[in-house]
Amino acid sequence: MNRQNNNNNDPGNQIPKTSGSRMTFLLILGGAFLLLLFIMYQDNVFSPNIEVSFSEFMKSIQLIDSPQRVTKVEIIDERKIVYVTADNSTHTTMIPLRTDPSFLKILDEKGIDYTGKPSVVSPLEVIINILPWAIMIFLFIFMFRQFQGSGNKALSFGKSRAKRYYEGSERTTFQDVAGQDEAKYELEEIVEFLKNPQKFSKIGAKIPKGVLLVGMPGTGKTLLAKAIAGEANVPFFHMSGSDFVEMFVGVGASRVRDLFEQGKKNAPCILFIDELDAVGRTRGAGYGGGHDEREQTLNQLLVEMDGFDTKAGVIIVAATNRPDVLDPALLRPGRFDRQVVVDMPDIRERELIIRIHCKKISLATDIDFNKMARATPGTSGADLSNLVNEAALFAARKGKQKVEMDDFEEARDKVLMGVARKSKVIPPKEKEMVAYHEAGHALLHYYLKNADPLHKVTVIPHGRALGMALSLPVDDAYSKNKGWLLDRIVIMMGGYAAEKVIYKETATGTEQDIEQATNIARRMVCEWGMSDALGPINYGQKEEPIFIGKEIARHKDYSEETAKKIDKEIRVIIDECLERALSLLTENKQKLKLLSETLVQRETLDDDEIRTLLDFPKREQVTA
């Protein structure tokens, strides 16, 4: 599908307007305003008339032989007086009150010639009086139109920000979604309803009003929603949950109403709300007005979902990776009553995803898609898309015409291990310690039967780590047994143990290893029932980031005596695993030194190179 605006004008295809013409116009407008001020006040600055007070004028009338004697008076509009003195200078003054006969009698007695005339407004004075108001009105209209424009939503807060995707030459269908067979099976019913609603209505069946896609980030929830619209050939409205809530109270509820009105006008269609947890979190648990506004928005969403009929052909599809924080009212029958799990891809699905993304790039003939899928366990569709793009970038940097297998290898290492910081200078002594640390991790992989195969070990800094030993599982694993977890802790303590064996002391680089090992041991005791002393009992709440409303309800559900037992069991697990690591590395100290010295020289070693170096048997290659 090609994304378009409702007016069929794509801003991305338009030449952006420069601010030069607008700036020129504002400069001209400012110059005209300054010129107006100059005209308005030039009479006061450059006028030859001398302005005097009325009392001074009355004194000048009484003078007889003086240059300041008044010789001629002109009365304008019975208020303003312009008079000429004996020295031919012109003066002006204002009469406090309307001219009375006594004033004229004084002029007659002194023999002063006087005349009167009405005030005459010149065209220039008319312009001077009107122009400021005209400029103010023009500026008001200009600002009003700017606020109404598409670039500024100041006057359209209550309008929905949903983006509409129209059918185009690149329409998304289920064929563009690799794997996810169960999810597509559930959603095909929605497609069938949008294509042929009579099939369901004639037997009294009701299609679900809302479908909630649940899955980890990057698994393809948005892509599936677009595929529904593409398969059914209907309009698709996309909006994020965070777009509903603004700083002004009532805006979110207004946008919800506007979104559903758009859906009814364009029915049949699909309304897709991404990141539903941003607006659909459990009510009544927050503090302050911000939560009140979000709850008001959620209430309006609940009302709208109750108020429209699916016979109109409007289907609500939402996506979230936090279904645990959603308000129960959203998940009841009649609203989002169908939940579709969009899981992480398995090895078969990863291969299909890689093949789809590789259609857009030029490939060499030696690409092994199955090997790439096996080497990327636990990755999402978005991760695989990024991996293919990184491989293409590597090939382009090298000046290649096609992407080869070694480019994918480099891209995979970059995605899994982070960007290599080869320019970072590490002192030789510290580099040697890092090499022993990483060699300790790597060597233990070959002596533990439950350990995942080692992929690569390096002393080149990646991200914040000065070195890294990376292992990759042979197959996708959805659960781990106690033996695997204990061997994993042994490997994590391998760096600490290697430093103890060689230097009799440890450095700060063991911090993350100790933290991860302790976390696994704690979960073994408190969550997975792997402690013989405490048994299969869950102690305490999970330490995952949960919505604040559920944080408030947390409590310690075990006694101080039990807490001591938990600490003791964690200590036993860590001590036993550390002892195993120390024992294995002490027995194989020469291999540890050889591996460390080779790492210092070559910086990076893969599994095959280590097996050759230490005379280990070759690992059997797994084929599909």
How would you describe this structure to a colleague?
By secondary structure, the protein is α/β, with parallel strands linked by helices. The chain has four domains: 50-117, 2-Layer Sandwich (Signal recognition particle alu RNA binding heterodimer, srp9/1), CATH 3.30.720.210; 163-283 and 293-341, Rossmann fold; 347-415, Helicase, Ruva Protein, domain 3, CATH 1.10.8.60; 428-542 and 557-614, Peptidase M41 (Methane Monooxygenase Hydroxylase, Chain G, domain 1, Up-down Bundle). The chain is built from 21 helices and 15 strands. The protein has helices at residues 20-46, 54-62, 101-109, 123-148, 181-195, 198-201, 221-232, 251-265, 288-307, 347-358, 369-374, 381-397, 405-417, 428-444, 482-492, 494-503, 511-526, 548-552, 560-587, 589-602, 607-614; strands at residues 2-3, 50-51, 70-76, 80-85, 90-94, 113-117, 163-166, 210-215, 236-240, 269-274, 314-320, 338-342, 454-458, 468-471, 604-606. A seven-stranded mixed β-sheet has the order 1-7-9-10-11-8-12, sandwiched between helices. Strands 2-5-4-3-6 form a five-stranded mixed β-sheet, covered by helices on one side. Strands 14-13-15 form a three-stranded antiparallel β-sheet. Strand 10 (269-274), helix 9 (288-307) and strand 11 form a beta-alpha-beta unit. The longest helix has 28 residues, at 560-587. Residues 1-18, 150-155 and 543-554 have low confidence and may be disordered.
